[in-house]
Each structure stands twice: as structure tokens, then as C-alpha cells.
Amino acid sequence: MTDQNPDTRPVAPQHAFDVARLAEWMKHTLGHLDGDIEVAQFKGGQSNPTYLVTAGRDRFVLRRKPPGKLLPSAHAVDREFRVLRALADTDVPVARALGLCEDDAVIGTAFYLMEYVGGRVFWQPQLTELERPERARIHDEANRVIAALHTVDPIAVGLGDYGKTGAYIARQVARWSKQYQASATEAIPAMDRLMEWLPANVPASDETRIVHGDYRIDNLIFHATEPNVLAVLDWELSTLGHPLADFAYHCMIWRISPDLFRGLGGLDLPALGVPTEQEYVAAYCRRTGRDGIPERDWEYYLAYNMFRIAAILQGVYARALQGNASNADAHKTGRITRPLAELAWQQVERLGKR
Prior knowledge:
The chain is an alpha+beta fold. It folds into two domains: 8-115, 2-Layer Sandwich (Phosphorylase Kinase, domain 1), CATH 3.30.200.20; 132-352, Alpha-Beta Complex (Aminoglycoside 3'-phosphotransferase, Chain: A, domain 2). Helix content is 42%, strand content 12%. The protein contains 13 helices and ten strands.
């Protein structure tokens, strides 16, 4: 996505809303508009529908809860708005949050408005569209930003109550087990085994920091020509939690093949100019002041995150069957649930043999 050519499409019929009502709210909230508003929908995103709103020379981004029946605690746009406001003066680059509307009468569901940040979005971690030397710099910048997030003091930025503290992994396993069961469309034995094994094998170490919950390269907007992150997107799953679990989610790409889900697994990384998993983890540890990560804990966090993303994708698939998923590829994406769950269980089996 670039500033001149954002990756949008016409608004999907199931995500359309009253543009005139939005214009009234924007005038009241912002004070004025540069012109009549036009709305297009971003192509990316599996959860909260996201729109480009143009008013004359000004551009904004709107994120809303999807219409239809929703899972409990999902699609919390109010939390996204809050975390953007809290991180505005930190080393974590975020878009400026402009206004939150929780009145369903305006466009049908709650939403918030933020500034539009132009730049580059990379959809695959191989970064084949770049020259080899730049790929390492892009990955190093992504590493710098997640390390910056995990060194922010939640209390100091007003997020001390943004989530519960302690026992994060156990609570997350319970949450995603419940979400998966609520959206299951077929029996997946690997998910059943994971829901039994994961809560019984949680690592003893516990920490609390702000976690993004979905930190990956396609949720970062990079400068148009420089390897600098201008904004981290999609804070829907952010909360207080264990930073290593958050970081392991980001690092799953080194264990997943490109044909499964945007992965680096099995690729010749030195030839690509992309850091190895070990190099990437070492850089994060240096930036966060860690003396490494216990191997068994790290392997657990990776298995847990494969389970977690499988549960999330099952929810995407269930919404697709209902006809209200945000992404046109939701049916295809949702079918990744089974192979990803099986990959997670293979991870557990390897861990048990060590």
C-alpha cells in the first residue's frame, strides 16, 4: 500500500453503511471537513472491517465492529482506540486516534477514526519485492518496534488496568479454547489434544507487559523509501500479557511454510538475506535486556501460538459461513485451521521427545 495508491476496493454490500450519518458525526467530532466524504474498503483484514475515508484533501481510516452475531469479547474497537491514544508519546509508532463512536445508530456498529498513514505494507516476510540488502533492514526494524513495545511500562502510559496481570498463558488458552468451541464447524482432533495439553504444561515464568496480539509484518506501515516503521496497525487483540508469548506469535513464521500461512519455513534464508529465527530472537533479547530464552519455554510459546491462530482462523471461517467476514478470502483462510492445529501438535510431540 502506498500513499498514492492505497489497497482498497468498493465497500462490500454486507459492510456498507449510511455515509451521510458518518459525515455528520465527523463534522461534529473534527469540527470541519475539507469536502464531501467518500468511502472505500481496505482489502486486508479478517476481523474488523476497515475503510479509507476521503474528505477533500484529507484522508482517514475507520475501523468498526462487523455486523452480525459476534463472539463474546471480540472486535473491541474501543480497546484499540484506547491503546493508540496511550502509545502516542512512546517509541512505538502508531497512527493518531481521532475519535471513538460507540453509538450503533451512526453506522450500525461501534467504530473509531484515526489518521491515514501512507507508506509501504509488505504482505509476505520473504520481501521478494525488495533488493536483498534491504530485507534484513526491514526485519530488523520490525524487531526494534516489538522490542520497544515490550519495554513500555503499562502503568506509566495509563494502561495499568488494560488487562489482568499474571497467569496470562493459562487465561489465553482457556479463552481461545472457548472461542474455538463456539465457532467450531467440524471435529479437529489436534485441537482437542492441544486444549488438553497446553493448560497442563504452562511455563512457570510470568511477566506482564503490553502485548499487541497480532504483531506481524503486514500489520506494519513502513516509510515509502526507508526501512522505518511509521505505524503499527490492528490492535484489536492487544492487552496486558506475557511479552514472550507475543514475540513467539510474531516468530511463528520461521516454523510455518509459505504455502500454509505467510511463513519462512524451509526457505534458504541466507540466500534471501532474511535473518534466521535464532538471529532474530537474539536481537530481540539484546534490545529487551534478556539473557536468552529457555528453550523449552520458547518451544511451548510457539506451540501455544499455533493453537491460538488456529482458533482465530476458525472464527474467521465461521463468520465467512455466516456471510459477514471482513475479507473476501476468509473461506480459504479459515480452512488453514486444521493443518495449523496439526502443525502445533507436531510441535508438542517433538517437545515431548526432548
